[in-house]
Amino acid sequence: MSTSLDSGPLPQAPATALRQRLAELRGPSTAPHPLDARALAALAANPGCRRRALLDGAGVDKAALARALGSPAVFGQSQFAFMRGNAFEARVKAEGGAALLGLLGVAEPQAALVPDLAAAGPEGRAARTALALREATGAGAWTLLDHPMLALEVAGSPAYLEPDAVVVHPDGRWTVVEIKSFPMVDGSADPSKVGAAARQAAVYVLALERVAAVTKGASVDHSVLLVCPKDFSNLPTASAVDVRKQLSVTRRQLARLTRVEDIASALPDGVSFDMESRSSGELASAVESVPSTYAPECLSACELAFHCRERARSAGAVEALGRAVRGELGGLSAVAEVLSAARGGSGDPADPAVAALRRAARLRAEALGAEAPDAAVRGPGCR
Ligand code: SF4
């Protein structure tokens, strides 16, 4: 098997024809937009979206595309949150990572090795990290890798990923460490933030597994160490987070990215996301030609969220109401259909979703002191 970046075996690169097709879609003169851990983790947040899979696979800059469509993404931390996060991370890693290693139960953290990972460029840093991991595993000593660089090839392009830290145990285990500035109160933190951190950490685990595969005696922990401030203080506390589920979703998604050929071949002729040569209207049509599955979760995970939300709303798609509501509505796929079913204008009364909607409509009418939307929706006990 081929290796790349001296950091483990690579997934099979896409065929030249696919590479060319993706370059055509992106715009022949546009370099592919690199994927980072956040982008890869977001794939796991909405695994069913073909639009995102194709755009990421083709290396389209989705933030620039959203701007060209007139719906720019609003992402990122505030300057204050950014500085607070940096200060907390510096505190956790001070004195050779004594506090961090203490959270892992290391009795003598000052004896741990902290190799220098400096090298030129991301490729050089990834190679340096791979070497440091091998040396640390061979040495059988606690080792802290501060901001290592990992590489993962995605749909033919290398993505460079930089976890906060990786700790090598004396028995050859490697543990990913994620340091976040949201608080852990009484041992638990905001589940949505923990979920996002777990998805991101799973991408790092995946990249580390490639290096571990070619390192004798190494294994990668499927539990990552999440370090957060304790109870609104500045003191660090930690929790082990099992990322096996996120790992399998991310693996599936990455495998799918390498099969973007199927999605690309279903596109009408002439579709292009080339922002140099296409008008905003042409880009909007190109985006619309790829099926999407908008969900409110996209707002925190995908640069095209405002565009897709607006389209989903104007099409009256029930997906815009969220996955949970979508699931409850069964076969009803449009908001107009839902309202009609609730008013008794359509729908099979034996359908549990229709029955629940009519019951809700009756209750609402009663609460408002109004007539039920339609006499036909009244059940036998309704007055
Ligand atoms: S915002 Fe649009 S493209 Fe992005 S994941 Fe959601 S539906 Fe897909």
Would you write up a description of this structure?
- By secondary structure, the chain is an alpha/beta fold.
- Among the domains are: 79-245, no CATH class; 329-377, no CATH class.
- It has 14 helices and eight strands.
- The protein has helices at residues 16-26, 37-45, 50-57, 62-68, 79-103, 121-139, 191-212, 244-257, 260-265, 280-288, 305-314, 323-328, 335-342, 352-367; strands at 143-146, 150-154, 157-161, 165-168, 173-179, 219-220, 223-229, 236-242.
- The strands form two sheets. Strands 1, 4, 5, 6, 7 and 8 form a six-stranded mixed sheet that branches. A two-stranded antiparallel sheet has the order 2-3.
- A hairpin with a 2-residue loop joins strand 2 and strand 3 (157-161).
- The longest helix has 25 residues, at 79-103.
- The radius of gyration is 25 Å and the shape is globular.
- The model is unreliable at 1-6, 9-13 and 379-383 (pLDDT under 50).
- It comes from Streptomyces tirandamycinicus.
- This is Secreted protein.
Question: What's the arrangement of secondary structure elements?
Answer:
Blueprint: H1 16-26, H2 37-45, H3 50-57, H4 62-68, H5 79-103, H6 121-139, E1 143-146, E2 150-154, E3 157-161, E4 165-168, E5 173-179, H7 191-212, E6 219-220, E7 223-229, E8 236-242, H8 244-257, H9 260-265, H10 280-288, H11 305-314, H12 323-328, H13 335-342, H14 352-367
Parallel strand pairs: 5-6, 5-7
Antiparallel strand pairs: 1-4, 2-3, 4-5, 7-8
Helix pairs in contact: 2-7, 2-8, 7-8, 13-14
